[in-house]
Amino acid sequence: MNEDEVFYLFSLAVASISLLLLALILVVLVQYTLPVIKEMGFDYFITSSWNPVFGKERYGILPYFLGTVLTSFIAVLVGVPISFGIALFLTEYSNKTLKKYLSIMIDLLAAIPSVIYGLWGFFVFRNFILDYIEKPLHNYFGKISIFSATPTGLDFLSGGLILAIMIIPIVSSVTREVLELVPTEIKEGIYAIGGNRYDVIVYGSIRYSKNGILGAILLGLGRAVGETMAVSMVIGNATGENALPRSLFSAGQTLSSLIANEFNEANPTSLHPNALVGAGLVLLMMAIVVNLGARAIVNKYKR
Amino acid sequence: MISLRVKKKVQNTFLFLFAFLSTIIAIIPLFSIIFEVIKNGIEAINLDFFIQLPGPLGESIGGIANAIQGTLILVTLASIIGVPIGVITGIYLYEYGKEKKSTLISFSVDLLYDLPSIVVGIFVYITVVSPMRSFSALAGALALAIVMIPIIAKTTEESLTLVPPTISEAGIALGIPKWKNIIFIVLNSAKNGVLNGIVLAVARITGETAPLIMTCLGSNFWFSGMDKPINSLTLLIWRYAMQPYPSAVKKAWGAAFLLLLVALALNLLVKSGGERK
Amino acid sequence: MKTKIEIRNLNVWFNKRQVIYDVNLKVPEQAITAVIGPSGCGKSTLLRAINRLHDLIPEAKVKGEVLLDGKDVYKEDPLVVRRKIGMVFQKPVPFPSMSIFENVAIGVKLNDLAKKERLEKIVERSLRMAALWEEVKDILESPATSLSVGQQQRLTIARTLALEPEVLLMDEPTSALDPVSMKKIEELIVNLKNDYTIVVVTHDMRQAARISDFTAFMYEGKIIEFNETSELFRNPKEEITEKYITGRIS
């Protein structure tokens, strides 16, 4: 066996560690979740009672699943347009210096640790949202269900909004890449028939990059789904029935924040840990599906 | 009827405002976070902050020394494990990744990259903490290493791919074996990119909290062994931030100040280093 | 003249498409042989078949023999073959993260051919042979990328010479250079033929006429004609050769 073959086998062995880890993670998580599924059946996925008390144990992760969905939805709803605006500003309205410094700033947003977002979110952002968005909305539109609960700032809305900020770096940078790939002929063609910049963007760039932009959105969604710390510090940490999303201003919980909050206190002799691991498994599945989809679209687009 | 020219002008203005305002809205949190962390954190900084243990919760004396120590130990150990595995995996993907049999590995690296880090923590809890019957620094480091590996693998592969194939060809023409060409010629040429990827991955795990919650737990004491719980800056921030004790909150801000400084400094270092190619 | 390299019945395919058809060629020792022909005719592919660079490309298939001093290179250790048959490329490719000194020494170092102490001597000798020593002797530690393009090409030649090969293959070595650098390299090549067997692929007919002793004309993957340079250019035997030389096909 010559040197190159040894090198190949060695690097293959090391690279296989990733494959091994992934397989192990899936197997271990499924195995550890089985006991609670055996006990609760499908109710585990579709009910909302959450009672770790011995003798009366009931576990249903529906509210947390909905919490993840709702906060991620808000994140994408708010974060994607802003990200798109930034990508536009960078590609259409910025000179070299501005591009450089703005890019650095957006990248710095991505560099901030999640727990610091949470800290800031708990002491600063939440009050801002409370005073300038939640209270007014509740006062004027409180009759509408989504604005109905008494706002505290620690709720689904804050969770979703802080996620929106956190997904901006990835969504804006991918969108920017995608926009920069639009061939100049397409843009020039629209200018040539009398279009203005608005027309070029809407009828040219966006139409051309539809799939790429969709991929960027999915990447942001994937990021939002998996985020834990920042959300756990501003979402209010409700459990069980109380965690069901009734209003934007009600306290809630996501799959990831649930795990972060309850894992260490869960009694190992009960099914509580298993129920939490199950939440992790569902979260894992969601993250995989969204990210696989995102990557498939972005890769197909880049070709 | 509004004239066409006016409509066109309004459209353009609207577009610009949309882009401009979005940018402002995105930048504001950055400055707000930096401002608040500095404002609230700097109050906590004094010598004691760096050298003393936190003491019981609520105590107004004490510092975060063990958290600093813990973060250093965890990150160092995780890097010792994660960096070599990540780089070699990246090399494998670069050189052999296009073959049919390596799609499974390539796929696994991508999926590992997408894993929410709290799931990694759960995994290490079940496989390491539970059998050991103890939260431990080792478990925490392992969890962080698992987070690091796919990041470094991807950045290494990207950096290697950016090296012009003419360089690889010139190396082979010198009669050296393929593996030496990959390591001493191609990887050498990609040095900067690979190092940048490593620094970014280190910065990332320094700021990670979720995988540490159920692996190393946190502690009020100095590091006392790889098989014992250990504290970290991130765990401290998370635990103290929402406590009703002002002294705890102050420590959390102080820790955040330190952590943010490190995270931003490392990222800026990479940005400036990257230009110096 | 003695034959250094004999190519026998060489055929090359890329992805099932044949690009070299039954090439037979005898390359004379210690002389400069030029390979000319229109772009796409297979000159570079032919060159790369000599030092077995196609081994690295899974899509390439090579059949036939390439005899170096009578021994088929495809039956020898490819690493040894590439040390004996050096190659200089069209685009000067100094290794970017290394100094001038390191660039010249790297081939020798990685092949474990010399101890550290001898490296300095080897580097100096190679740079002198490449006519670059005087210009860089005081800046050996500077990055190789700080040199001009012409100097970089001479650097890659020095790098190849450091391994003390017997044959030099050159794939359009001056096409990326300005006229002044080109002239310097042509002088260099002519000087080197006393110690090496050289094969130069070029799309510049006048260059071939200037520097080579023998010329092979290739067209669509086949060797159409091979002769002493002066003969080939003055009395081409084949019609296609004449058409190419007079510029009617390119």
Task: Give a nutshell description of this structure.
The complex is a heterotrimer of chains A (about 300), B (about 280) and C (about 250). Chain B is mainly alpha-helical and about 280 residues long. Chain B is about 75% helix and about 0% strand.
* Number of strand elements of chain C: 10
Q: Biggest sheet of chain A: strands side by side, in what order?
A: 1-2
Radius of gyration of chain C: 18 Å
Structural class of chain A: mainly alpha
CATH class of chain C: Alpha Beta
**Main sheet attributes: strand count, strand direction, barrel closure of chain A:** 2 strands, antiparallel
Could you please describe the fold and organization of this structure?
The complex is a heterotrimer of chains A (303), B (277) and C (250). By secondary structure, chain A is mainly α. Chain A is 74% helix and 1% strand. Chain A contains 12 helices and 2 strands. In chain B, helix 3 (65-96) packs parallel to helix 6, helix 3 (65-96) packs antiparallel against helix 9 (191-206) and helix 6 runs antiparallel to helix 9. Chain C has one domain (3-245): P-loop containing nucleotide triphosphate hydrolases (Rossmann fold, 3-Layer(aba) Sandwich), CATH 3.40.50.300. Helices cover 36% and strands 27% of the residues of chain C. Chain C is built from 10 helices and 10 strands. In chain C, a hairpin with a 2-residue loop joins strand 4 (60-68) and strand 5. The radius of gyration of chain C is 18 Å and the shape is globular. Chains in contact: A-B, B-C. The interface between A and B is large, with 86 and 85 residues.
